[in-house]
UniProtKB/TrEMBL annotation:
Belongs to the calreticulin family. GO terms for biological process: ERAD pathway; protein folding. It comes from Stichopus japonicus. Residues 1-44, 98-167 are annotated as: Disordered. Residues 14-26, 130-167 have a biased composition (Acidic residues). InterPro entries: Calret/calnex, Calreticulin/calnexin_P_dom_sf. It is found in: Endoplasmic reticulum lumen. Keywords: Calcium, Chaperone, Endoplasmic reticulum, Lectin, Metal-binding, Repeat, Signal, Zinc. This is Calreticulin. The lineage of its organism: Eukaryota, Metazoa, Echinodermata, Eleutherozoa, Echinozoa. GO terms for molecular function: calcium ion binding; carbohydrate binding; unfolded protein binding. Coiled coil: none annotated. Residues 98-129 have a biased composition (Basic and acidic residues).
Length: 167
């Protein structure tokens, strides 16, 4: 039941022997609320003018230009305003970019090689640390065996001499 369907008894009083420390905070007993009619929901009425979900009408736009044509013309305008022509842009690219291309490529290759070496060193260091941890675990187990059973209890040499039944 929800809190709205129940209401406290109005004339209920706290008992005289009620101890808040022992019994907790006193709450009056609850009864069903006669005025509660359930969860409220708004009324739904039909809309006589409703025509269904709206769909955007598709109409032709005579001013629409193809995107590729627009992009190409924009690039051409930028080139013309900046360099004068496509040929001028190509010659300027050769003058500026071709000169630095080889040096930049060598520098990038050097940086990549340094990063690769650094990664390999970190991986080797991590593997070495993981290997050390495993060795320490083995040593701890051996120490436990020695303490629990004594070193004389485990004679590996005697076991090799004794015949064993294989499964």
């Amino acid at each position: 039941m929800t809190s709205q369907s129940l209401s406290p008894i109005a004339d209920a009083e706290k008992p005289e022997d009620w101890d808040d420390d022992m019994d907790g905070e006193w709450e009056p007993p609850m009864i069903n609320n006669p005025e509660y009619q359930g969860e409220w929901k708004p009324k739904q009425i039909d809309n006589p003018e409703y025509k269904g979900k709206w769909v955007h009408p598709m109409i032709d736009n005579p001013d629409y230009e193809a995107t590729i044509v627009y992009i190409n013309s924009t690039i051409q305008l930028l080139l013309d305003s900046t360099y004068g022509s496509v040929e001028d842009a190509e010659t300027q690219a050769k003058e500026l970019w071709e000169v630095t291309k080889e040096g930049e490529k060598k520098m990038k290759d050097k940086q990549d090689e340094e990063e690769r070496k650094k990664r390999e060193e970190e991986e080797a260091k991590r593997k070495e640390e993981e290997g050390d941890d495993e060795d320490e675990d083995d040593e701890d187990f051996e120490d436990y065996e020695d303490e629990a059973f004594g070193e004389d209890d485990f004679d590996d040499e005697d076991e090799e001499d004794e015949p064993h039944d294989e499964l």
